[in-house]
Specification:
about 120 residues; mainly beta; seven-stranded mixed β-sheet; four-stranded antiparallel β-sheet
Length: about 120
């Protein structure tokens, strides 16, 4: 599966952005999906994950209650809605696909899109 993320940009603190990730292929629903981010000088962090059918999600504590991951399997799309953005959310955001065959508690992300920059000004 090939992934392409978009939707990043510059936003003021407290603002919102919605990231999109378009996936190629006809087996998108067989992949669990995740959004990751990496800020300069920091390790890559998983911020949100969604199961194959979208029924299960989980979030990093740092974004819980502010970010929402969703997917549309009919359109081969996964989204990350980011509200109440903070300067510490500034990073390059990546979408990634895990599976097929992985379990929800042992996802291995094998496929990565290019990143999209999110910058939150104070």
């Amino acid at each position: 599966v090939q992934l392409q993320a978009s939707g990043g940009g510059l936003v003021q603190a407290g603002g919102s952005l919605k990231l999109s990730c378009a996936a190629s292929g006809r087996t998108f629903s067989r992949y669990a999906m995740g959004w990751f981010r990496q800020a300069p000088g920091k390790e890559r962090e998983c911020v949100a994950e969604i199961s194959w059918g979208g029924g299960s999600t989980r979030y990093a504590d740092s974004v819980k209650g502010r970010f929402t991951i969703s997917r549309d399997n009919a359109k081969n799309m996964v989204y990350l809605r980011m509200n109440s953005l903070k300067p510490e959310d500034t990073a390059v955001y990546y979408c990634a696909a895990a599976g097929p065959g992985d379990t929800w508690y042992n996802l291995v992300y094998d496929y990565w899109g290019q990143g999209t920059q999110v910058t939150v000004s104070s």
